[in-house]
Every structure is written in structure tokens, then in C-alpha cells.
Amino acid sequence: MDGMTSPMMLSRKGDGIGWMTFNNPARHNAVSMEMWEAAEAILADFTADPAVRVIVINGAGGRAFVSGADISKFESERSSEAGVAAYQAQTARVYDALADCPKPTIAMIQGHCIGGGTALAVCCDMRICEERASFGVPAAKLGLGYPLKGIRRLVDLVGPSFAKEIFFTAKKFTAEDARLMGLVNRVVPTDGLEAFVTDYAATIAGNAPLTVGSVKAIVAEALKDRGQADNAKCDALVAGCFASADYIEGRRAFMEKRPAQFQGR
């Protein structure tokens, strides 16, 4: 699935990184049903491919990450109750696939990150944006309802007070606002964003996949209510790292003062 899977969804792989690009720059990368369906297929392919160790999500054109739903498609895709339900089910599948992906995920954010774009970015493990980026969820200006799972993800990230501020005001927030809220991990100069993210992703891809994957899974368990975490699962993941060939390789590489060549086993 290298290359184009849909004219408005692009994917490529290289150096352990899978890149998924929303490619509708004329509409600030607003997303149609067809694009969500292609995104689901791309994510499934990246998740299944052992050569892909990190996934980066971005938007084409430099003016937007994703600006939410394509309003020009509302009449054809979301004018009926059944259409709304189908659209919501499809977006939920993509959000879940991204949030539950066992591999590290990074949102590389240029320009506007609005509505469904913010929801998509929140599903990633990390968000790295440029200085001009802006964020917002305009649901309150459109009369839209927002599901529990999406709000919970935002609350887990920024806390209840900032989550309420984002929804209650429906304002656009700056990159610095987002950094202070904890909505983004890093804010970098516009002209250095892609190089920064590529280097970050390459660093992660070069680390031990079993360790990285175990930490992602254990963090998810740590976010559960006390007493709800699967301790046996966490213990098994840790034991799997120590029993792996990568642990042997890591020790040898450290002693020999050379980069480790991890195989994920």
C-alpha cells in the first residue's frame, strides 16, 4: 500500500516510518467519508507491517493539518439520520484504530487543526506543531453533539478545565496556548517542522520496538482507574522485553559502543 490509496489520502513508508497524509488542501484538508475509509485502510496496513515502527499523520499543502468534516459533503453524506450514523461510525473506527494502535503515532501539525482534526491529533501519542498552528473544536457553534470517548481522550490529555474551555468557547487557540494546555508536546519553527518530526520519528524507530510497544500499552493501563489495570498483562510485557533477542543486542551494543540493531523480537 505504498503510494496513493485514494486521490485525497496518501501513504508512504520508509526508514521504519509510515506517513499518512490527508490530501485535500483546497478545502484545508477537510475530510469526506471516502477519505475516512481510506484512512482506516492505511492505518490497518501500517499496523500490520512489521517494517513500520512509527506512524506520522500530516496534512498536505502547508495551511492545515485537518480542518474537520468536509461541509460540502454534508448534503450527500450527513443529511439523514442514517447518513449521520454511518459517518460517525466510520470516524470512530479511524479514531479508535489510531488511539489503539500498538505502534507510536505522531501528529505533525501545520496550520489549522480544527474539529475532527483536533480529535484526530488527540488520538495520537504525540503532537508536534509549527509556530503558526491553531487549534479548536467549533461544535458549540454548529450545534453538534460530541461523544464521551472523544471528550474523555481530550480530558485525559489536557484535564477537565481546559477541555471545557476548548468546547465552551469554540475559540481558535494558538500553538503557544496549546503548549500551555498540554495539547501539544512541541512547538517548532515552521520551516523546520518536517525535519524535526522526521528526526523524532527516526529516533523512535531506531529504539527497541518491544520496549516502546510495552510502554505504550502500560501507559494505557496506568490511565485506568485504580484497581482496573491489568497487572498481569503489564508484567508479561516487561518479562517479554527481558526475554527478547533485542535485550541481548541492546546490552552488546552498549558494551561495544555501537548503535543497536533491534529486530523487534
Automatic annotation (TrEMBL):
The keyword Lyase applies. Coiled coil: none annotated. The keyword Oxidoreductase does not apply. GO terms for molecular function: lyase activity. Keywords: Lyase. Pfam families: ECH_1. It comes from the Bacteria. Belongs to the enoyl-CoA hydratase/isomerase family. This is Enoyl-CoA hydratase/carnithine racemase.
